[in-house]
Structures are given as C-alpha cells and as structure tokens.
Amino acid sequence: MRRFLKYHESYVLIVIVVLAIAITSINKQFFTLENLFDLLKSYSFLGILAVGVLIVLVSGGIDISFTAMTSVAEYVMAIYIINLKSNILIAFLISILVGIALGAFNATLIHFLRIPTIITTIATLNIYYGLLSFFSGGKWIYNLPDWFRNFSVIEVIKLVNREGIGYGLSIVTLIWIFVILLAFFILRYTTLGRSIYAMGGNRISAQRVGLNILRLHFFVYCFMGLLSGIAAVVHALLVMNVAPNAIVGKELDVIAAVVLGGANLAGGAGSLLGTIFGVILVALMSNGITLMRVSSLWYNVFIGLIIMVSVSMSAHQLKIKQRQRAVIDVE
Amino acid sequence: MVAVILIMSALNPTRFMKLSNFQSMAFQMPELGLLSLAMMITMLSGGINLSIISSANLSGIITAIILIKYATPKAGSLTVVPFILTAIAAGFAVSIVIGLANGLLIARVGVSPILATLGMMTFVNGLTIVTTGGYTLSGFPPSIAFIGNGVIAGFPMPLLIFIACSLLLSLVLNRMALGFDIYMLGSNWLATLFSGVNNAAVLIKTYLISGLLAGAASLIMISRFNSAKSGYGEGYLLITILAAVLGGTSTTGGFGKVSGLVIALIILQIISSGLNLMGVSAFFTLSMWGLIIILVMAANFISVKYQQKKRKTFKRV
Question: Considering CB atoms only, which of B118, B281, B294 is closest to A109?
C-alpha cells in the first residue's frame, strides 16, 4: 500500500474510482459496457493528441500548436479525398505527411533558433491557424465520401444491448490503442525513448553524454505532428465534417489531461499510464456531469476544481517528500 | 517602432496618419495593455498567469450585476454614485480574491504557476458562465460608459488609466523593495530565499497585483462594450504573452521592463490597425503576429550569439 501511494498515477486512479462510484450511484447508465465503449470512442481523439503532448512534455518542451496542425492536416486531407480518388490509407498518409511537415517546421525553429518552445508553438499556432482560416475562408466541409463514412462505423467487437440495439468497440478506439502501444514501445524499449527522458531531465548533460539533440528534437516534434495527423483523420471520422475552427482552442484541455496524469511540465518525467488515466479522468468528468444531470453550465467549474485539487495534492506530496529528504541531510 | 509607423503610413498614405485613427488605437490598446501588465509581472517572478482573462471577466460580471440591480439609468444621478462605487469595489474584491487564491496555491501549496492558474482559469471561467447563464448583461448608468469611452483634454479615459497603472507598476518594480524581490525571485529562487527574502509573501503579492491589474482591465472592458459576458476577450490570452515577450520579458523570469512592454504594445496595435485599414483579413493578421514573434526571437538569438562571439574573441586575445 505504501509503495502504491508513492506513485502519482495511484492518486489519479483513486480519484477515478471515487468519481466512477459516485456517478454510478446516481445514474446506473454509467456503468455499462455501452457507455464505456462510447466514451472510449469519443475520447480517442483527445487521447491520441495526449500521447503526443506527453512525449513533448517529457522531452522538456511544450507544444501548443498541435491543434492547429491537426486542423490543417484535417482540412488538406478532406480536400484531397473529396477531389481525388483515394482510400482510407491514403487519407491517413496525407494527413500524417502534413502533420510531420508542420512538426518539422516547429522543430527547426526550436532547435536552430533556441526560441523557448512555448513561444515558438504559440507563434506557429497562430501562423498555421491564421493561414488555414485565411485560405479556407472559414468554410466547412460536409460532403465527405461514402467510403470514409462507412469506415467510421466499423465496430471490432459487436454486442447487442437489452433493447436490441447494437453497439460495439469502434475501430477508432483501436487506432488509439495502437498509438499508445507504439508510444509505449518507443519510450520504454528504444534508445531513442530513453534519450528523450534524458534530454528532458537535463539537456546539457544529455548533450555531454553524446546524445544527438538535433535528432531528438526533430523526432519529438515530428512525432507530435504525426499524431496530429492521425488525430485529424480520427476527428473527421468522429464528427463527419471538417471545420477550420473546430479544434483550435482545445489545446489546454489536452495539456491539462496529460498534466493531471502526472507529466512534469519541466520535463523528464511522465508516464503513458498516467496520461491514459488523465484522459479517462477528463472523460469521466464531462460524461459524469452529463449523466448526473447537472446543468452543463457547471462543467467548467467542476473541471477547474478537480484540476486544482489534484495538482495541489501532488504538489503537497512532493513537498512532504522533499522535507523528508532534507531531514536526512541534516543528520 | 518608428520603422513600423513609417511602413504602415506608407502603405495607407491617406488614412493611417489621421488623428482619428490614432485615437481609435488609443481606445483599443489599454485593456490589452493592462492584461499584458498583469501577465508580465507574473512572468518576471518566473511564473505565468493564465487566469487573467477569466478573472477580468468575473469581476466585470460582478460589477455589472450590482450596477444593473441598484444603479439603473433612471435613478437620480447623485443617488447612484455610492452604488457605482460599491459595484466597482466589488469587482476589485473579486479580482483580489482570485489573485490571493492563485498566490496561495503557488506559494504555499507549491503548485507550479502554469497548472495553478490553468485550473483557476477553468474554474473562474465556469463561474462566469454559471453567474450569467451564458447571457450578456447590459444596461449601465452613463457614468460607467465614461470610463471606457470618455475623453479628458483629448486623451481617451482608458489610455489615462493605462498610463497611470503602468507608471505605478514601473514605480513598484524599479523603486520598491517588492519589485527588486520579484526580479530576484525570477532569476534565482534559491538565492533569493537564502538572502532572507520571504519568497512566499513576494509570490502572493505578485499574483495579487496581477489580479488587481486584471480587475482594472475588467472595468475598462465592461464600460467600453457597455456590457459584461463570459468569454469576452478570450483571444487576448496568447496576445498578452506575445506582448510581454516582444517587450523583452524573459519567459523564465527575472528580466523585463514596463517600458519595453508598452513599446511592444504600441507596435502590435499599429500593425493590427494598419493591416485592418488595408482590409487584410483578421486571420491573416493573426498569422502575421505569429511570424513577428518568431522574427523577434530569432533576432534576439542572433544578436546574443553575436555578442557572445565577440566576447570570446576578446578573451582569447
């Protein structure tokens, strides 16, 4: 138990469990496989982006521009698949290529000009989003091709509920799981992944050890771009229309989810498990508020409170830990 | 700055150099300016305050609610005065409470500023939605509109408020012990602690001042629009960071001046007004701003590198 309490993830898990029990006690609808699958589907988009943000945070940077990258990738992809013959793979490919290109632009600025990442990405957010809105004229795209529509309703596991309505685990969730596994493999089992942690922990020592910072920067920001590309297709699959302004403005939600999951904004720390928990927590909160029949006006009040309480808890924990260490120093 | 003015007046020969244009710029700048000052002071201490906009909105809404309830335009002009003052005081009280809460979370609990204020931003934003129900509050007595739209001796009232606030802030930062402590705290937390400064108290005061500035901004905001609503000026958040950074405030804390911020604000305002007069889309302006940040930062980087090189060669000799 004591070891369990050492990890930040455990606290998030406790909050999740308490929340889940509270919601279920008020509305039985919550604890059904149907609702769960539904949640997993609608939060795949946020979850995919959260994985990218986690890696950027671990590397010691921050990326605010991912929402704009996603929007641009989504728009370009939509225009391509409407006007040219293509299939779902090509859609992903186009979207990912656009994302990587934009990510590479971020990486170039960050690496060669040494601009703080938060400023660079705020700037590129404005550039990408501004140019997208300027050239698209803010037009929405509705007429996505049929094969795209058909792909979105594929369900991997098919079940039927008591009223005889079918439901299942969406393919979109599968994409999210694939992304998580990929990131898990990279962060855990490759030199690249461990180097990212090293760079986030202390950039100068990482450089002295001989890590190629240029390569790491490019990998981190291009990977964020890649995931933005995937998330772009997922978003289009989920909402079935493409609007230039649909995603921009949600960047803090994603960052909040990742940070709730224990990633350190100063870099070098953060786990995938924590991030997944963070996303689940955010999903639970918004879903729970709906199911508890609380007016949606209160949504932000609750989210804000939960963010404040959970970050205070982990900060307090850290303080206690440091105090203990200080005592040992004196002795 | 001079270069920017020249470029803009060359591009709009007839319209840019008019007094009315400058006056409209002077009306637009102060609220953004006050919010940028609120952002800057926390950045000086090595933190950041994301909750300024929502805090300004909440104090605006509280002021508006009291005004609408007790100080309707029909009531006699003199009997209304105490209510207007209470309303304004209540608005400031709200911003003080938010500032204090931020400061306590950051200094006493030890939450990182970006997280604490992110949570506060979401929370306060939620409160603004709950209190207004998403509607716009309007119908203030005319004397309130004067704060936002009045002119004293040719100077717009908001500009005067902004000038007063920035002078006060630069006085605090440059001439008072508190200002010195804020700068020290921003450049080296531990060294400041060991030199006998009460870091927590300084941080709390920093966020308190930041909240107060947001409160002042809210007053201008509601009087200029003659209404209050949740979500006013949401797009300002990134621009306040941009203005502070353009003005030379370091994102890691410790460096930055009010004068730099003011110059950056004027440049930004001239660019946006100029582009607006040329009929350029607002979105294009947005991307121009992004480009400008990068150019400024690049120029900074190159000049720093150049100086370092110079110093190095000097050493070798």
Answer: B294
Confidence category of residue B178, pLDDT binned at 50, 70, 90: confident
- Residues of chain A positioned with their CB less than 8 A from the CB of B105: 308, 312
Instruction: Please tell me the least confidently modeled range out of A211-225, B106-120, B132-146.
Output: B132-146
Q: Is the pTM of this model over 0.80?
A: no
Beta bridge partners of A155: A170
Rounded Cα distance between B28 and B273, Å, is: 10
Torsion from C-alpha of B63, B66, B70, B71, nearest 10 degrees: 10
pLDDT in tens, B134-163: 778 877 777 777 776 777 766 777 888 888
B255 vs B252: CA distance, rounded Å: 8
The answer to whether the CB of A241 falls within 8 A of the CB of A78 is no
CA-based nearest distance B75→chain A, Å: 33
Which among B137, B141, B136 is positioned nearest to B72, based on CA atoms?
B141
What does the pLDDT read at residue A97?
Answer: 92
Query: What is the average per-residue pLDDT within A222-249?
Result: 86
B156: left (phi over 0), alpha (psi -120 to 50) or beta: beta
Show residues of chain A in contact with B291, CB under 8 Å: 123, 127
How far is A222 from A59, CA to CA, in rounded Å?
13
User: Does B119 contact A308 at a Cβ distance shorter than 8 Å?
Assistant: yes
Å between A248 CA and nearest CA of chain B? 11
CA torsion through residues A135, A140, A143, A149, sign:
positive
In this prediction, residue B317 carries a pLDDT of: 42
The pLDDT, as a whole number, for residue B20 is: 64
B96 CB neighbour count, 10 Å cutoff: 16
List all residues 6 or more positions away from B262 whose beta carbon is below 8 Å from its beta carbon: B33, B166, B247
Q: What is the pLDDT of residue A330?
A: 43
Cα A190 to chain centroid distance, Å, stands at: 21
Chain B residue with minimum CA distance to A123: B290
Q: Where are the alpha helices (H) located in chain B, listed in sequence order? A: 2-11, 19-44, 52-70, 77-104, 113-132, 142-149, 157-175, 177-187, 189-194, 199-225, 236-246, 258-277, 282-316
**Which of B96, B47, B89 has its CA nearest to residue B249?**
B47
The per-residue pLDDT for A300 is: 77
Non-local (6+) Cβ contacts of B59 within 8 A are B90, B91, B92, B94, B95, B98, B214, B215, B218, B219
Q: Which residues of B touch A (CB under 8 A)?
A: 50, 105, 109-112, 114-116, 118-127, 129-130, 133-134, 238, 241-242, 245, 251-252, 281, 283-291, 293-294, 297-298, 301
